[in-house]
């Protein structure tokens, strides 16, 4: 999966627009009609992005036919990436990771990220566990993919501890930034049993995909990533992690194809919300506020 515009003209011109929005260290969420300003409280988001139709279960409804067509073309999630390409690019080409790639990253920004992401990943574990429970009720194949993701988090937590001690970053009594706290709160909400599997798996895919695309870019041709950051990039930018993200995306696409309209709408809203939280999270690392 690449983030590049997928052969259409529109995303290309919108990408140019993105660049004008990128500050050297922050991405400000002031966007087009599809995206709300970050000065707005979060609660305003769902309505704006939710297709307002009530649940339509009928397999033969025009909407579900349209969704099947989308799925043939690469899945609903792919259409959402295109539709929300400004936000998606803001999350996957953030100045923080772009600076890792070009070698201009401030090591203290990396340390800030490391500590905050340790907090995030600890909170991510119960979320993934909740997805595992939902997946286990759906399909043995899904369960195995999610279980693989959950299992790898144990090694990931160890990696954060090792990395922190190497870089003299204390993981005890650290200040949890607002963006981290807000993101953890979102994870907690998504952990609830009443959150539909299709929504939860879409969220899971989106969270992993942002890191995959961001760090894979740091390893792609033309990079100038300092050797001390290569290991971090490989953790999420490796071909293996890409394959795992693809599997999650396929599961999400399959669930969304079958889901009633209101669930698809909730999943799309969640996708957008995650991109926003990822951007805010990167902003904390770059800005140090
Ligand atoms: C903020 C954030 N988003 C995604 C990931 C990647 N998933 C697990 O490691 C992460 N570590 N942190």
TrEMBL record:
Catalytic reaction(s) noted: N-formyl-4-amino-5-aminomethyl-2-methylpyrimidine + H2O = 4-amino-5-aminomethyl-2-methylpyrimidine + formate; 4-amino-5-aminomethyl-2-methylpyrimidine + H2O = 4-amino-5-hydroxymethyl-2-methylpyrimidine + NH4(+)
Provenance organism: Linum tenue
A GO-annotated cellular component: cytosol
EC assignment: 3.5.99.2
InterPro entries the UniProt entry points to: Haem_Oase-like_multi-hlx, Thiaminase-2/PQQC, Thiamine_Salvage_TenA
Family: Belongs to the thiaminase-2 family.
Record PANTHER family: BIFUNCTIONAL TENA-E PROTEIN (PTHR43198:SF5), BIFUNCTIONAL TH2 PROTEIN (PTHR43198)
Name of protein: aminopyrimidine aminohydrolase
Keywords: Disulfide bond, Hydrolase, Thiamine biosynthesis
Pathway: Cofactor biosynthesis; thiamine diphosphate biosynthesis
Region (Disordered): 38-73
CDD domains: TenA_E_At3g16990-like
